[in-house]
Fold each of these.
Amino acid sequence: MTAAKPAAKPVTVNELFKIAHAEFKAGHLQSAAEKWAAIVASHPAHFSSWMNLGTALRRLGHHSAAIAAGLRASALDAQHSGCLTNLGNALCDESRIAEALDCQRRAYALAPDDQLVHRNLAVACREAGLFAEAYDHFTALAQQLPQDVQLPWEQAMCLLYQGDYARAWPAFEARRLLPEMKNHAPHLPLWAGEDLRDKKILLTEEQGFGDTLLCARYLPLVIAQAAEVTLACKKPLHRLLAKIEGLRIIAIDAAGTAAAVPGAFDYTQSMMSLPGIFKTDLTNIPPAAAFTDAVDLPPIVQNALDAGQGRLRVGIIWSGSVTFGNNRKRSVEAARFLPLMDIPSVTLYSLQKGPRENDLRPLGAHYLIHEIAPHFEDFAQTATALRQLDLVIMTDSSVAHLAGSLGVPVWNLLHDRPYWLYLQERRDTPWYPSMQLYRQPQPGDWDSVFVEVMRDLKALAAQRAA
């Protein structure tokens, strides 16, 4: 007979906790969360496991569950700064901003010298719209951590949100130190406003399509000064921006660099630096670029637009780029737009492109809403369609910049902390006179936004009918 193997020694709670912690540090979040969950299942008063479980769940994107775990931990130790700041971060993810700010203030009071806690408080202030206070916190941290390139960028953003452009634009150049910032033409000197007579300059896109469209208003100002102006940008913008007289367009290659011949240019500059070079403030914002010529639309799109003549033709968009980090907060479900179909004199057109362009189909709404955006090849076709609409109602994305540039009425639906361009509390923006802003009255409150939109659209439809 074979001798029976001795029973395996049971793993203690402390050993299991250490294993989970090692897995968490190695990036095995699911496995770590399962082990911490196993500990609290049998030891519900194990504070450290609750706290770490909350952190792992947040990293996994389970924000509500992370809050629940954090609250369990906080109930066991209400004076633990690490627990409070982690809970505050999770609450912030779910737009529970007042609660998040309270947690971060309490954590900072307990650990004022903890730089991570201090940073989390600064972020919570920023998310709460307390930009002056957030700026002070980020400034203090920047003095303590001069090598941290993220902190000057945060300072700049706080100034932009306040409309303090005189200080914001110089500070905004700190973004060049961020690891994600691309230098499309590293061999060329940066233009900082020098005389461009007899000079050739390469301008480059920098961030999203919307940022390039926003700053296209500065292109004629540069063209008026330089012997030759070339813009390097992604192909979907080429046909549209080529409408600007005197501008040459080249491509951004797959590696994110401009296809430029060395020696062909005297200077380069990123589009987003142009507002600072031209010393833009709230009183002297240049008019948006004029994209004058229309292009041909696919027959299926033009026929749909023609069919709506005599009615109120309204374009809708519910999501920006899904790769944008904050898209979850700025976007909504397509179903929120369906009540607009109830207004008989309104015809709706979906301008939604990308992974969410088919969101209407599971709702059956594609039978009543014209899906025209999937047929667009580029922004030039989008612009041609926009000119034939009476109104665009959308959550913020690049099409808002295009509609605003064209002077098309656009109702831009904003979450509680939108893009810096829209400043604070205003219902309009000096950057786009045809744009009206609909803001969440409280973080996460889209219901109130759509009640207001429905009311105003009914009033507009009635006015047009009269």
Amino acid sequence: MPTSKATATWKGGLEGGTGEYGAGSGSFEGGYTAATRFEGKSGSNPEELLAAAHASCFSMALAANLEKAGNPPESITTAAHCTLEMQEDGPKITTMKLVVQGKVPGVDPAAFAGAAQEAKNNCPVSKALMKNLEVELEAKLA
């Protein structure tokens, strides 16, 4: 299996500093600041990138589960909501909520929810995160 790479550079102190990140493949890049991370200002932040990674991984795992069960999906759309909260010892990512909607002919809501739960428990990003934070799931058919 390949090893994926991304880079990030931060310049300056926390309040006045700026950061840039990019994928090793060159497929994406962007910037971030303390204001985009902690104040909800326009722009990206590490939690948004983590949420994108989790939504992508989960969607692929769910599609694989459904296909393996004989019901390949027409589409899977996942929104991941990554919550950063201030704790006594500093900021902490506390929750990742996955909200998924699938268009899957021939699958009932219970089967879809079961396949989604399996994907939540077994996608590689979920496995990396679940020992450190709560991962919630909401699954619906379109």
Amino acid sequence: MNDLIIFLSNIRWQDVLDIALAGYLLFRFYVLFTGTYVFRVITGLAILWVFQRITVFMGLIVSSWAIQGIMAVSAIIVIVVFKNEIRSVLQAKNLKSILWEFPVKAENTPIEMIVESVYDLAHTRTGALIVFPGKEDLEEIVQSGIPWGGLVSKEMIKSIFWPDNPVHDGAAIIEGDRVKEVGGILPLSRRDDLPSYYGTRHRAAAGLAENTDALVIVVSEERGEVTIAKGSVVSRVKEKKKLADILQEHVGVSKKQSNHLRKRNLELSIAGLVSIIFIAGVWFNFTSGMDTLITLEVPVEYTNRNPKMEIFNTSVNTVSLSLYGSGAPMRSIRPEQVGVRLDLGKAIAGPNTFTITQGDITLPPGVSLKNVQPSIIEVVLDIPVKKVLPVQVDWTGRLSEHLILKAVELDPKDFEVVGGKGVLENISTIYTEKVSLNKIEKSGSVVVKPVFNPAFLKTSSGLDAGIKITYEVEKRSNSTKH
């Protein structure tokens, strides 16, 4: 378990991206070539590769060599024999269809067939009246219908409305994928707002739509137009796609289509998961025998410091080490086995610059250093001293013209500061945080903190106590006389 945790902790984001990208490419290969002979042959080659890795693991030299030779020859055969099939799959209209679109098998659904049939009838100016029931029963409204029960097809719809067919003037009722009735008589609409050129078919469609939740399609033999009626709306439909969308919304997706869609989504999900697992296995197989690169953040330790001096500031506290080695040592590496130590034996008071070398880094056997960032560190050392410094308010802005700052008191008035001797020699005052005069309208007080510059200075108590500023203002007297 610990080995697994160590292995997972050593995986870089580049490795995750590598596996994800290669897995997606394998998944796209499945999407594009599934069901073809190429896919079956490649699947066989993948199985051969698995057996070849098993023979290598078991030390079966001859068997491994033989399988590897078969795979090499088979790969060439696939490219030569199936080049036409591969070209036909990859001859896409755009890059999108190769990289992320999912090809859908063409299926002549009833809706598609109905739409095609309707516009074929419109093209030949053959009148038609087709009813798609909703949830309401039409048995009491549609009269004289002849039971039919045939499967929906383009030929059937065209034959029903063929001008020499006795039932061509009536309505055909379609439920699911079957024509339930033909020759039905629909109630006529009595609306006054319908166009004057609407004939009996259009008024029959409007009449049924007004009284039920059915959707009715009308094909005009005079104008070759396709019109739909639903509710109180009667409108012309010029595009096949729009008519298909309207029908789809009215009848909904069939159970068979839903099951097919769920099955297809499940199949693609399993294929994606298998692709990632397979590529992860291949990645592990390759990296287990090759040099592995990892990056560790390691804290910097300082040794041999002059006991009279203290470290007041450093440019960084940790460095990033890029390490490489064979798979096994890199997977078993532990953070405590890696260290960075800088020798301060020759450091002087003030700023010091150190360059990290190989000798400053401790590594376990089998692990080598590739890079260190940053490689240069600045360390400020000095003899610690204490100094009492007065506090001064850092005012900003201006008082209102009618006010005068009469008195200011600070509590405390000074601080005992601890810092490097060289730094404190050049500091005579501690300033407060900025206090805005613009906001002062009357006498009062405010508590602020001291501002230490450089930031590594601190009070002798170790706490940055607040400074209470009590100020007194008064109104400016008007000395102008008239």
Amino acid sequence: MIIDTNENISIITQEKVTVIELVKKIEALYPKFKNQHIIIQLTSLKPIVLEDVTEFLRLSKLHRNVKKTFVIVSNTFDLSLAPEEIIVVPTHQEALDVIEMENMERDLGF
């Protein structure tokens, strides 16, 4: 797991561990990330299936409750299968765009 922090965004890149192990590590380190937006880069894993994405549901809900964005980046996942409660995009740039859009929505009171 590689963690890169840029201003108010933490980018967590998955390297070798399984998705379940990654989720456990993020949960253990969550206090470090709770005040930042989180981007989970899963582009090194092929293919990503629905069960992998749903492993992040609890973290996503927790993070969104504190008014921060939680985005998964995967270019191998069928985006039409993503549950409503979690955001999955195919590129890093789209993840940054989602953070920007959600910040605007929060500023407008949505």
